Amino acid sequence: MTTTSPISNPWLAALKSREPWFVKGDLDGFFGLFIDNLLQLMLIGVLCGFVCGFPAGFITSVILPGAAVSILIGNLFYGWQARVVALRTGRRETTALPFGINTPSLVAYVFLIMGPVYRETGNWHLAWQAGLFATLISGVMEVAGAFVGDWMRKHTPRAALLSALAGIAITFIAMGFILQIFASPMIAVLPMMLILVSYASRIKWPLSLPGGFLAVIVGVSLAWIFRSLGWVSFMTPQDAYVFGFHAPKFMPGDAMALLLSPLGWKYMAIILPMGLFNVIGSLQNLESAEAAGDRFETRPSLLTNGIGTIVAGFFGSPFPTTIYIGHPGWKAMGAHGGYSILNGLVITLLCLFGGLTLVLKVIPIECTLGILLWIAIIITAQSFQEIPKPHALAVALGLIPSFAAWLLLQIETTLRVSGSSLFAVWDKFGPDLYIRGVVSLSQGFIMTSMVLSAAVVFMIERNFLKAAWWMFAGAALSAVGLIHAYTMTPAGVENKFGWLAAPDFAAMYALTGLILIGLHFWHLPATQSHEIT
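and the corresponding structure tokens:
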């Protein structure tokens, strides 16, 4: 008698199943995830050249093909994973986890690792190797996180996970994109409204056209009609598109070149928190997916995430990959697993054939941002809807650290554009602007959000002992510099690690924890008396 593996059998069954791989909702989902990935590729093309000195040909022939390999691996896996879960649970509407390049890590690695190395040495190749080193370390941390992720999910209230995620959605996604939309009303506002009409009312359009597809077509048509009339202009790449195939290059030597160099380890103050950011962010997105009705196993999901990042490093992309925010939004669009697979294939083709320039010559990015705005507001709404009603207080508090981080980014960007820096004007901020509070709250803002939200959840439930442990966690994180601690340098705000890196915050969190323990023992006799009665 032969037996089948309980693990491999469902995966093989998913491959052999006659259930359709693609449904109509996958087209809408594809547009959303494709635009999200496209935005990351745009940032790579612009920032790597401007900040890090990378030649345009190097970005096209090495970095983008390397990114394509990592994106393809993750998208194929998560599409297949959704199919497995759908067949196992009988829920055909299971939606795959979205996946792509991690935006916060992209920005942090460019401005805080590769950019400084390039400015100090004038060597763009060395700067690129520093980015590869950071990506490999991040990938190893993500793989390690796969083995403790279930424990973290079990002991962290859903409100804490969802509030931090919602904070990122409403600030870094919604705020940035809606400002861009209203800066180009003639080509961006109508597509946004069509997205809201389509997904909020779930109306069916003539010919059963998907709402996202219709919005993009309308936006592109308006953009080119208005441009032909001279009423509106939008930026398109100036470089001519040249057809060519750029094969991915496996380059372990460059990826590990700085493992024994102090130059690589010098930036652990950036790499460590960003690696933790990726692990915690992925856990939050798994929790978000479960709140929307799709539960995926933590370990394989995080392992694939980490493997994708490691593969990126070995194939020349200095940017970690991650499970994206947005699963509830794509689920609301009716996407299943096919949208992930389709996105991986299309992004790969664009990167391997240098098609990014061609796409941007045809489709103004402003026409597509309504899809991402919808995803952001869905996530924010879900954080309040998928928790016990009293826990809404904890969610509201957990949003605030993300606003501080977003505000700091706007301040630094504005100063940089004006030819100055936060370091240069630090002492000029008046007492009413509280810049130190902005910076302190922004440092490790995801972990701060989770600590505050979780503590308030247990305060609401009068479980003061668990609330105290979360306060002690905040004290420990502050003491070693993972939250609130910073150093102001000419390059900007940098993390500050070391014992008692933020002693004032550590002391106050610890004192709060002691008070909560006192409340636990003071409240305990009354609770026991009530239970006996």
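(Above: one complete record from the training split.) Confidence is low (pLDDT under 50) at residues 1-7, 528-533.
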